[in-house]
Amino acid sequence: MAMAWLIWPFLLIFLTALPANSITESESLLKFKQSLTYATPLDSWTPDSDPCGGVQQLWVGILCNKNAVFGLRLEQMGLSGTIDVASLMDLPALRTISIMNNSFTGDIPEFNRLTGLKSIYLSGNRFSGNIPSNYFSTMVSLKKVWLSNNEFSGLIPLSLATKLPNLITLHLENNQFIGNIPNFTQPSLVDVDFSNNRLTGGIPSGLSKFDVSIFAGNPGLCGEKLTTTCTQPKDATASILIDGTMKDAYKTKYYIAFGTLGFLLVVTIISLFFKKKKKRRKRRKRTRRASEQDSNDDQQIQVIVDGSRTGGSRQSKSSRSGELSDKSTGLTGTETADLVMVNKEKGVFGLSDLMKAEAHVLGNSGGGGSRPTSSGSVGSAYKAVIESGVTVVVKRVTVMNQVSLDVFDKEIKNLGSLRHKNILTPLAYHFRQDEKLLVFEYVPKLSLLHRLHGDHGEASRLDWPSRLKIILGIARGMCYLHKELGFLSLPHGNLKSSNIFLADEDEPLISEFGLQRLINLDDQVQSLVAYNSPDETVSAKSDVFSFGVVVLEILTGKFPSQYSGLNRAGGTNVVEWIGSALEQGVWMDLLHHTVVAAAAEDETSSEEIENVLRIGVRCTGEDPDRRPSMAEVVDELITMEDSSDDFITIET
């Protein structure tokens, strides 16, 4: 009995303290909101609602996974004030914070108290002052750090280089950092930028693999990668008078050095002489071969139309000018107007190489009358194997006859300069006023449309992990396009499953992007699927709608009626179909059987499928302003992918 009286006070203290620690996510976020000076954009944050509410009722700027808040994406909202980091410590699932392009000032907030964060985006504010050297020491899960376009000063925190083993992305550009760059040795680091600061000293060896542009705008930096040579500090003994013996030793070293340089110079001259002689021989051989080739009377060009075995193969002759003219393909061209290469990663070739190649007409879904096709494309396509062994797709475009050569050249070269593993960049173009040729790399596995709706059971072989990988790849590619082509009203404009190709291991490649400004105004509605969104005016959010349609198509396996220029009767309005099913609570019945099977077998897959469905529904909402950005979509999908990771948490 006496023991019970001894224990009772401690038990009472414990029970009294318990409610204080059981703050809800809603209360935590509302407390955070109160710390902001200007929070009008967060009016949807109200005490009587849930941050991770229904499919279309999430709080603005809140990213959820498994009904828990994992991210804050509060970008370009004009927010300011002193951020209450303590309030965010009651969000145990919080993994990403982005407050980019707002009006925050002062020292960097104490986000290092949130030890489970994987990414932090503070770019585009007016944060200033020094960042403590050990600031990031407790944030060992961090993968992405964006501090660019602020007013930070002082040394780059050493903990960024020594305490973050999984660091992938680091952006420190456009600040006022000074001193030497720490040696970043993380093998995971692939994206880094130190440009436009006040950094000095040599480039560390760990960063030598990166392009020189990431160091631009730092006149005090030096090293092999830069034009400035690092000067070694003078040895203190250099100013001391040395005796004759030491002088003789130095003289001997100088003689050896100059002798070695002289020998190397002679070897170089002899080597150049023989190389020049070898080039002359090669030139003579090429001239001889060219004259032999010109002696031929004509060239053979074979065109085969896929899907036709009777009368499907023709041969035509052309003169030595390399003119190709075949009614079955409609391709025409002369050597006087050659191809313009905009991407040389697959080598350099000319129009004459295409003229000699065997060409096959391609259908959007890979051919076959019973397969669904989505026309409304920018042109018909032909496959050609050129002499170098490279296989290309030549797209003949007739809806751009009102654009000038200068404009066309500038736009296609801009598209050709883009690089991302999930986009299919054009290789070359040929310009004629009445038609254009766009040349792309050929992808053997054909399109996502073919895999989802083909006749041979391809869709059944796309299991849930493959479908999720494809959705994430498409989202990443679209996010990249929206960033790089953000100046366009439609960064893509024609996103649909027939314009998404599957490379090795089902990695998606997005094609036909960024062409809206080149297409005749009268032809845009018929050519671009973005015009089938419910928006009054097309914009980047019309692309988001198209992405949502593709997501629902992948989940359900149904061919969407939202695709323009259908070459097939029927098609399902997947947006209305899924919306109605959600209201009735029977949405699982509408998914493809491989997706349903995955949900039944594994609880994690079931949660992933539901979250991806939520993303698809939000992307296809009628109000463009309520649709997420592609960057938000990528963050949600990546967090889903990372949700099974074991996060390291260190007590502060």
Automatic annotation (TrEMBL):
Q: Which Gene3D superfamilies match?
A: Phosphorylase Kinase, domain 1 (3.30.200.20), Ribonuclease Inhibitor (3.80.10.10), Transferase(Phosphotransferase) domain 1 (1.10.510.10)
Task: Tell me the InterPro entries matching this sequence.
Answer: Kinase-like_dom_sf, Leu-rich_rpt, LRR_dom_sf, LRR_N_plant-typ, PRK1-6/SRF4-like, Prot_kinase_dom, Ser-Thr/Tyr_kinase_cat_dom
Q: Where is the signal peptide?
A: 1-20
Spell out where the chain crosses the membrane: 254-274
Q: Where are the residues of the annotated region Disordered?
A: 281-331
PROSITE patterns in the cross-refs: PROTEIN_KINASE_DOM
On whether Signal is a keyword of this UniProt record, the answer is: yes
Q: Where in the cell is it found?
A: Membrane
Q: Where is the Protein kinase domain?
A: 367-648
Q: Where is the composition biased (Low complexity)?
A: 307-322
Q: Keywords in alphabetical order, please.
A: Leucine-rich repeat, Membrane, Repeat, Signal, Transmembrane, Transmembrane helix
Q: Which domain of life is it from?
A: Eukaryota
Q: What protein am I looking at? A: Protein kinase domain-containing protein
